Amino acid sequence: MRTVYLDNNATTRVDPEVVQAMLPFFRDQFGNPSSTHGFGASVGAAVSKGRRQLQALIGAEFDDEITFTSGGTESDNAAILSALEEMPNRTEIVTSAVEHPAVLTLCAHLEKTRGVKVHRIPVDRHGRLDLDAYRATLTPQVAIVSIMWANNETGTIFPVAQLAEMAKEVGALFHTDAVQAVGKLPMDLKSTAIDMLSLSGHKLHGPKGIGALYVKRGVRFCSLIKGGHQEYDRRAGTENTPSIVGLGMAAELASKFMDDETTRVKSLRDRLENGVLQRIPNTFVTGDTLERLPNTANIAFEYIQGDAIPILLSRVGIACSAGSACSSGCLEPSHVLRAMNMPHGVVRFSFARDNGEEDVDRVLEVMPAIVERLRGVRNSGPDRRSAEDLQCGLGLSGSRTGSRS
Ligand code: PLP
């Protein structure tokens, strides 16, 4: 069966050039980058190169502003916890209602265990941040604002440069989870007031389990992981050198393919959206259709709930994801869709540079029949069918899909 992968916001295929760059670091280049002998020195140089490649991608002023971590989740945790540690007199956090669980779960934990006050800024039905609500929460009590650059479900882009300027006015630090934005949008951090930024390798054709935290020079930082002096004392533990080299190469390739992302990949996304909207009635695009990642299509299908569409698509070899809050059988929409007051079944198709027109055409070929079938099942039973009934009606019992990353 020919497969089509349209779930690139969950993770991307590792670029073959990235794999090639990593391989020597599993073989001959095995030294510890902290060692002073020759085995270590060349690996240390490779780690420094990886740092400079990332610096170039995000437009950081200095390479020592980049700290390698295990990924987006660790970077988010490290940024927020550091701010609370460094600013003990400030006990409030401002975030949005649609952040990734890497931020929201930590905030809920801090609220419960440390009595930290968390402000979750709401969004409108297009996923746009309520700027008045944001402004109203900014007081000298706020230690850190953590608001994502682009949303992983809808692709909606938040005006982080402007939000960072506003945070500065009350002396709060500004962190952005840019896991979905890095490599898809041009960035020049040195010209912004953003203090910290999280990114993740596996979202930009790099390896999994590696990421980075940008910390602007001059921002006081308290490390999350204590131990040795690696990473300028910001993250202890022997460096994951093959993955750092891979992330560096992924960053270099992302710069090279940036134009492709904003033109060809975007036109594939638009072709899919237009095709679905033309062929299937009662469908619409969710999220901010102007300020949006070029690769993300989030399409609502009225009268269909839960993750039934992705399950049926996966049976014909097409990978995409649903906006449900949990695994298969759950009709509950995700926290992002709930924040947008979106009652319908929403499917996310996320593209990358390895997709082509044939992928879009395959989806358009099978989608109308799948939607018709699902709407037929819905109409053939009582109005309020349980997730289980719906699954049984479609012969889907036992299938599983995960929540969105
Ligand atoms: N933040 C966002 C917006 C994400 O989409 C993800 C990935 O799912 C993460 C954070 C977590 O990144 P990682 O998988 O590298 O821990």
Give the key terms.
405 residues, alpha/beta, Aspartate Aminotransferase, domain 2, Aspartate Aminotransferase, domain 1, 2 domains, seven-stranded mixed β-sheet, four-stranded antiparallel β-sheet, 39% helix, globular, binds pyridoxal-5'-phosphate
Describe the fold and architecture.
It catalyses: (sulfur carrier)-H + L-cysteine = (sulfur carrier)-SH + L-alanine. Residues 393-405 have a biased composition (Low complexity). Belongs to the class-V pyridoxal-phosphate-dependent aminotransferase family. NifS/IscS subfamily. Residues 379-405 are annotated as: Disordered. It comes from Mesorhizobium temperatum. This protein has 405 residues and is an alpha/beta fold. The chain folds into two domains: 16-256, Aspartate Aminotransferase, domain 2; 258-393, Aspartate Aminotransferase, domain 1. The chain contains 13 helices and 13 strands. The chain has helices at residues 16-22, 38-58, 72-86, 101-114, 131-137, 160-169, 230-233, 241-256, 258-279, 308-315, 335-339, 357-379, 387-393, and strands at residues 4-5, 66-69, 92-96, 117-121, 142-146, 173-177, 196-200, 211-215, 283-285, 296-301, 318-319, 321-322, 345-350. The strands form three sheets. Strands 2-8-7-6-5-3-4 form a seven-stranded mixed β-sheet, with helices on both faces. Strands 9-10-13-12 form a four-stranded antiparallel β-sheet, with helices on one face. Strands 1-11 form a two-stranded parallel ribbon. α3 (72-86) runs parallel beside α4 (101-114), α9 runs parallel beside α12 and α10 crosses α12. The longest helix has 23 residues, at 357-379. It starts with a strand and ends in a 12-residue tail after the last helix. Pyridoxal-5'-phosphate is lined by residues 71-73, 100, 102, 148, 152, 177, 179-180, 200, 211, 405.
